[in-house]
Amino acid sequence: MAETKKVKWKCMIPLEICTQNWHTILLVKAHHPLESTIMVGRYSLPSGCFRIAHLLFSLRVLVLMSVRVAARPGEPPLDVGSIPWLGHALEFGKDAASFLTRMKEKHGDIFTVLVGGRYVTVLLDPHSYDTVVWEPRTKLDFHAYAVFLMERIFDLQLPHYSPSDEKAKMKPTLLHKDLQALTEAMYTNLRTVLLGDATEAGSGWHEMGLLDFSYNFLLRAGYLTLYGVEALPRTRESRAQDRTHSADVFHTFRQLDLLLPKLARGSLSVGKHRGDPGGRGSFSLQGNMGPAAFWLLLFLLKNPEALAAVRGELEQLLSRTEQTVSQMTTLPQKLLDSMPVLDSVLSESLRLTAAPFITREVMVDLAMPMADGREFSLRRGDRLLLFPFLSPQKDPEIYTDPEVFKYNRFLNSDGSEKKDFYKDGKRLKHYSMPWGAGHNQCLGKAYAISSIKQ
Ligand code: HEM
């Protein structure tokens, strides 16, 4: 029963719904679109009805908020799907690559889709990516999304959390000219967790799955490298503590990691590639290294020719050093940096498996020029998505037999790194983008590559 004015539900745009007593009282503050007034209603509802009313109310709000029937002139083709508000969310969540391939066939290299109440403009022309990744934050923002994820997934608004500050704090460590210090620490910590765990297992041998192996050890060693060890100089006891502590951290992280994609998909319009940087803090970024190492090892194990080539390269390099591997306290950075065959294997394995969503929040109404001379308008509040996994990475025009692993795809005949790849007769600047590109390119790229190689 209303205690104040009678509210016409049909034409109200609600601003706020609050509850005084969860089961019985519903307070509605709403804006009347015709009268421009704020009306406040107080309703007493039978227990149980509240939840249904709340649900219907919320649904209506969501549908109202998401109505966009057609693209304006100059905007990319719009595809809202057949389900109100949800749009293409289900198909997108199930298999983004197949969905986006289908949309590309229907609409071309650029289109806007409705996904869970959000309008997402998808750009799939690799020649046009450069403009996007170098746009200033005031136009296309990467960090707004990280904050959004924090709020949605964790219901967390940290008063002092700023992704830009976090990035600034990480930069000096990760982009230090001399990577050697990080590489050395990683090498020592890898030995601590790998050899220590094996010794603790008794016989010296410990059996585990390849993914578990890659994920577990890289993440734990990475954690100790970036967040510090128990004591320096290391002792037997401190190493044991490092192992236990990092194993606990890994366990907790793994549980969260399994949970997050589900949560993200449930609450967001666009699911993120696992380990994408949005909002999970710097530690979580290291979670990318395990899967990357897993695929690298798997491709090597499945391709004897590739494995032999990498072995040959390593043996040749080691023959030039004065120490044997067992004598080395670290792998010299110079050695890690002069392995074009292993680099090619890593690039090829990332080309086939790394599928990050490069997303940006559109901060202002924007004109976006395409490389072919066309220009499209983007609306403030929409999201822009690049998906390099489809193109360039799996594009048959750029890579012959794109589904096939070719370990030397990124090698020239003289053994140097191959950088020339073409689409529409034009050389590509971005021919593979597992690390992103531009302002927000992965800060941990060099550290991650060194760690995986070790
Ligand atoms: C194989 C491992 C990794 C892959 C494939 C990877 C990939 C990526 C990608 C695709 C982006 C986003 C680019 C964008 O949206 O424009 C990114 C950003 C980032 N990555 Fe990585 N990453 C890896 C490992 C790491 C590690 C180990 C660290 C640090 C410990 C790290 C730190 C970062 C940071 C800080 C950003 C955000 C940059 C910014 O805010 O502008 N990444 N990474």
TrEMBL record:
UniProt topology in membrane: Single-pass membrane protein
Keywords assigned: Endoplasmic reticulum, Fatty acid biosynthesis, Fatty acid metabolism, Heme, Iron, Isomerase, Lipid biosynthesis, Lipid metabolism, Lyase, Membrane, Metal-binding, Prostaglandin biosynthesis, Prostaglandin metabolism, Transmembrane, Transmembrane helix
Residues that, per the record, bind heme: 442
SUPFAM superfamilies the UniProt entry points to: Cytochrome P450 (SSF48264)
Major location category of this protein: endoplasmic reticulum
The organism's place on the tree of life at top rank: Eukaryota
Gene3D superfamilies: Cytochrome P450 (1.10.630.10)
Catalytic activity line of the entry: a hydroperoxyeicosatetraenoate = an oxoeicosatetraenoate + H2O; prostaglandin H2 = prostaglandin I2
Positions that bind substrate: 152, 158, 288, 383
Coiled-coil region: none
Assigned EC number: 4.2.1.152, 5.3.99.4
Cell compartments where the protein resides: Endoplasmic reticulum membrane
GO MF annotations, alphabetized: heme binding; hydroperoxy icosatetraenoate dehydratase activity; iron ion binding; monooxygenase activity; oxidoreductase activity, acting on paired donors, with incorporation or reduction of molecular oxygen; prostaglandin-I synthase activity
Biological process annotations from GO: prostaglandin biosynthetic process
Names of required cofactors: heme
A GO CC term assigned to this protein in UniProt: endoplasmic reticulum membrane
Function: Catalyzes the biosynthesis and metabolism of eicosanoids. Catalyzes the isomerization of prostaglandin H2 to prostacyclin (= prostaglandin I2), a potent mediator of vasodilation and inhibitor of platelet aggregation. Additionally, displays dehydratase activity, toward hydroperoxyeicosatetraenoates (HPETEs), especially toward (15S)-hydroperoxy-(5Z,8Z,11Z,13E)-eicosatetraenoate (15(S)-HPETE).
PANTHER family in UniProt: PROSTACYCLIN SYNTHASE, PTHR24306
Family of this protein: Belongs to the cytochrome P450 family.
Protein name (database record): Prostacyclin synthase
